[in-house]
Amino acid sequence: MSSRMSRKPRPRRAPLWRALFALAAVAASLYFALTTPPRLGLDLRGGTQIVLETRNGPTARADAAATDRALEVLRQRVDALGVSEPSLARSGERRIVVELPGVQDPRKAAEVVGRTAQLTFHPVLAASAPDGGAARTLPDPDAPGQHLRLGPPALTGKDVKDARAVLDTQAGGGWTVALSFRGGGEKSWARATGEAACAAPGDAARRVAIVLDDRVVSAPAMQQSVPCRSGIQGGSARITGGFGDAEARDLAALVKGGALPVPVEVVEQRTVGPTLGAEAIRASAAAAVIGLVCTAVFVVAVYRLLGVLATVALALYGLISYAALVALGATLTLPGLAGFVLAIGMAVDANVLVFERTREEYARRPAAVSDLRGPLGKGFGKAWSAVVDSNVTTLLAAGLLFFFATGPVKGFGVTLSVGVVASMVSALVITRVLADWALRRPGVRRRPRLAGVASAGRVRAFLARRGPRLMRHRRTWPAVSGALLALAVTGIGVRGLQLGVEFTGGRLVEYGTSRPVDAERARAAVGDAGFPRAVVQKAGNGDVVVRSGDLSDRDQQRVKTALETYGGTVTVERDERIGPSLGSELRDKALLALGAAVAAQLLYLSVRFRWTFATAAVAAMVQDVLLVTGLFAWLGRPADSVFLAALLTVVGYSVNDTVVVFDRIRETHRLAGAGRASLASAVDSAILQTVPRTLNTGMGVLFVLTALAALGGDSLADFSLALLAGVLFGMASTVLTAAPLAVVLEGRRPEAVAASPTPRAEKAGRGSGAVV
């Protein structure tokens, strides 16, 4: 009796721990989602971003320490400007990224933030014309046409303790800048003003010149009340010069911030209007809702009760991924929102893989299944390897985006990575907890078709009846793919790829007009403004987009004025300027990211499969990238940083699809036995078995991308187009390129696929349900 009792199986604790983990994840996500506000990027809330690069000065080298000191000076300037929630951060060794929410005038922002601000105080030696002598001679701000000959500096900006704009009500209501000095600066100021007060009234030597960046901003004369030799005591001074409110505040900010330790240069500048950002948020939110609803309806129609549970898990996936982003403090940008929406569609993939495997397990012995949780458990076990492999390949692409890209595309990589991890938690934990609970109900156990387990699906039934043998023409399919590839390469060679300003350097400005302006009139207006070679296009929302290699802030205003002739009131909705050095650097990084993506995928797949399979998968992936690039070349669409994000996503999705098929080929061929003929039949069988998963997953992604393309506006149209094409090409390349090429490569080697690396789960035994 006791012996029998000792053999009694102990209750399984895995479902309980799984349920507790799912509950904890949802509870934590609710907490962060409700208590932590999202951090929106400037392209969503409007504002200006300036990237400054430090340069070597005559006395200081632009290293990390000098850049940090420059960052602190810039921080004081920005704080004095009164910008709400500014952000300043060092990027790399020599770059500083400044974000100014709500600032729509990039000319003013760059002028105040990027000036060197070398502040000095000089005794005036005499009033004279410029003579080119050793003494410093600068124009007199109070007497046009006259100059002041200055002596050596008596004080510098380092001696200034504080500076603030003050409205002088006793002197006609003008604005002045009040200064206070620190330490030895008080004595130096008293000495300089005391020596000036000893000069005769009306003599230029009675003045002290305040010089900022080689310009005399003020040269006040000492009043009669200032004692000779003693000067102005108390360590305070006042800069006058007929300033307005804004001029006084800007000057105070520069003086208080002090001089930059090294010169800086603006290498990138972006401005987004608040209207454009609000429209992007609404469009992305609407696309997310519509895409999720369409995906939910489709999944429920195909998988019934399991589809309902998957829909609940998808909603919780959205909650978890959003909460993870706000908890990490990630900045949500426009490409990041697109990645968030796209990940919703990709989250369907893991659920579909599990459900299709569950149906297969039930179909093997339907009469012997008394508990639907048995096929479900085996479905999860057998889908595990494919889910991990497919998501790891996507994470590799997202990680490369993070390490090699900059700006918004880096945000896209972060969002996509979080989405992939959250989708695995949603599918493998939350969906399983809900499914285990639902399939335990007696009413569900008696109705396996209602549960979605017993239905094989129309696509699977059709393929089972027809049984096409695709590998009979394994040399024909690559020829078809080669023809498409030749067409794409021809487009790149003949039409050329239109690189965006991120990769070429230059300036792109999007102007909104109160009256519609056609492209020809806009080109004429831009040509009349002095830029006949500028590229002028119409955006999808009716705005005018002007792109030029060299366009200063003053030139931008001239173009705006010229467009007002035809367009009425003209506003700047978007303004991007990239320096030529940064453009070439970004271009090199883009090529490096693509090359690293190919190498990383090849290495990972070689470990997980055979090198022949890895080569076939990477060849199909490269083909998909070239096809999307060729499509953009034929259509004349720009290849910018958002296009790069789409390409690297295509890399992940293409390998994702191929890995699922190869995973099934390995399993099917191992069960059938080695041999070249059996490999071809195994490939046919694997493709037919995975077609329902490919179509169902593809439909989920296409719903979301179609919603993005229709509602995302011009800013997301190219992104959606690239991914739509990439998804379709990826689904086709698995069958037409990767699988036939794998068979051909394996046919050249005597070894069988069965010798490929076997996952540990299968080595442990078939009973584990992890045959992959």
TrEMBL record:
Taxonomic superkingdom: Bacteria
What parts of the sequence cross the membrane?
A: 280-301, 308-330, 336-355, 383-404, 416-439, 476-494, 590-607, 614-635, 641-662, 695-713, 719-745
| SecDF P1 head subdomain domain span | 138-262
Q: Does the keyword 4Fe-4S apply?
A: no
What topology does it adopt in the membrane? Answer: Multi-pass membrane protein
Q: Where is this region: Disordered?
A: 130-155
Q: A Pfam family in this protein?
A: Sec_GG
Keywords carried by this UniProt record = Cell membrane, Membrane, Protein transport, Translocation, Transmembrane, Transmembrane helix, Transport
Gene3D superfamilies in the record, alphabetically? Answer: 3.30.1360.200, 3.30.70.3400, Multidrug efflux transporter AcrB transmembrane domain
Per the database record, which ranges form the Protein export membrane protein SecD/SecF C-terminal domain? Answer: 264-437, 559-746
Q: Which residues form the Protein translocase subunit SecDF P1 domain?
A: 68-124
Query: Where would you say this protein principally sits, based on its record?
Result: membrane
Q: Where can this protein be found?
A: Cell membrane
Outline the subunit composition. Answer: Forms a complex with SecF. Part of the essential Sec protein translocation apparatus which comprises SecA, SecYEG and auxiliary proteins SecDF. Other proteins may also be involved. Forms a complex with SecD. Part of the essential Sec protein translocation apparatus which comprises SecA, SecYEG and auxiliary proteins SecDF. Other proteins may also be involved.
**Its family?**
Belongs to the SecD/SecF family. SecD subfamily.
Main role?
Part of the Sec protein translocase complex. Interacts with the SecYEG preprotein conducting channel. SecDF uses the proton motive force (PMF) to complete protein translocation after the ATP-dependent function of SecA.
Which PANTHER family does the protein's record reference? PROTEIN TRANSLOCASE SUBUNIT SECD, PROTEIN-EXPORT MEMBRANE PROTEIN SEC
- What NCBIfam families is this protein classified in? 2A0604s01, PRK13024.1-3, secD, transloc_SecF
Q: What is this protein called?
A: Multifunctional fusion protein
Species of provenance: Streptomyces roseoverticillatus
Protein encoded by which gene: secD
